[in-house]
Amino acid sequence: MADNVPQPDIIDARDGADEIEQSRAPLMEHLIELRARLMIIVGALAAAFVLCFLVSAPLYNWLTLPFVNAVTAAGQETAVLNYAPLELFFSRIKLSFFAALMASFPITAWQIYAFVAPGLYKSEKRAVLPFLFAMPVLFAMGIALVHVMVLPMVLDFALGIEAGTEAGAPANYNLFVKVGEYLSLAIALMVGFGFAFQLPVVLMLLGQAGLISAEFLSRNRRYAIVIIFLVAAFLTPPDPMSQIALGGTILVLYELSIWGVRWTQRKRGPVAPETSAG
Fold first, then answer.
1. What's the CA gap between 268 and 207, in Å, rounded?
2. What is the crossing angle of helices 240-268 and 221-235, to 10°?
3. Residue 214 in contact with residue 261, Cβ under 8 Å?
4. Which of 8, 96, 216, 219 has fewest C-beta within 10 Å?
5. What is the rounded distance in angstroms from the CA atom of residue 237 to the CA atom of residue 192?
6. Dihedral sign, CA of 109, 112, 116, 117?
7. Could you tell me how far CA 178 lies from the centroid of its own chain?
8. H/E run at residue 148
9. Rounded Cα distance, 253 and 210, in Å
């Protein structure tokens, strides 16, 4: 009879094996769910890429409108974009991929949110959801600002500085713009301004989490200005007009973020002090 009684070390080994199996099952479920959501993200990106490539020619023509208007305003009859063999094709692929990333972003963001949402409290879910919808809208606003104001301003500056012929100059100067270089300039500006427009979202989320305050942002404004223009110089092409435009835009967004963080503080209310138990 005594031989049939489980020994303590055997019981501990069985308990340890049961715990491993119990932890392994949720882990596998999370990995399976993660794989399924990644497949949805990749599928949405692939479908968006195909659709964007089908309309890549008119989409690129839309991007060239600021260039055409700047050339026409400079007094030239026609706007010419030059390209090397296959450069136009690969530029359309690059543009399609960039457009597909933006088009599929709502699906990507929702899949990421759905994966982490079970680990959030209801108050945290309510706090994150509005910003989840605001991010693509703000990114689109940054792109619209580039197309309507910033890119024409940069091109006017380039044509005025580089394309003008001085009186009595020994040579004529002609601005030589290639398809790929123009696309890289437009995408760099759109990405820079698109991410710059996310600043209110980031700061308001940090403020809602209690990590920063409006007073902190106001007190450190002078350091923020230096960092803002350093970031603008890093995100934009090496011309002063685009750097000043992006730096000024981020600075305005920083001031709006201070107001937004102050509003979230009032909405959240004062944080109750911690009390020690016992």
1. 10
2. 130
3. yes
4. 8
5. 10
6. positive
7. 26
8. none
9. 20
Given phi > 0 = left and psi -120 to 50 = alpha, else beta, which region is 210? left
Distance CA 259, CA 240 (A): 29
Looking at residue 226, its amino acid is: V
Q: Is 113 exposed, middle or buried (0-12, 13-18, 19+ CB in 10 A)?
A: middle
Phi and psi of 167, rounded to 5°? Answer: -65, 125
At residue 74, the 3 state secondary structure works out as coil
**List of residues 6+ apart from 23 with CB closer than 8 A:** none
Of 56, 62, 66, 68, which is closest to residue 92 (Cα–Cα)? Answer: 56
What element of type H or E holds 39? helix 8-54
Torsion sign across C-alpha atoms 117, 121, 126, 127: negative
Structure tokens at 274: 């911690």
pLDDT tens digit string along 60-76?
999 999 998 888 887 77
pLDDT tens digits, 116-175 = 888 777 777 777 888 888 889 999 999 998 998 888 888 888 777 654 555 556 666 677
Bridge partners of 26, per DSSP, are none
The amino acid at residue 171 is: A
Question: pTM of the entire structure?
Answer: 0.76
Q: Which two tokens mark 169? A: 């100059």
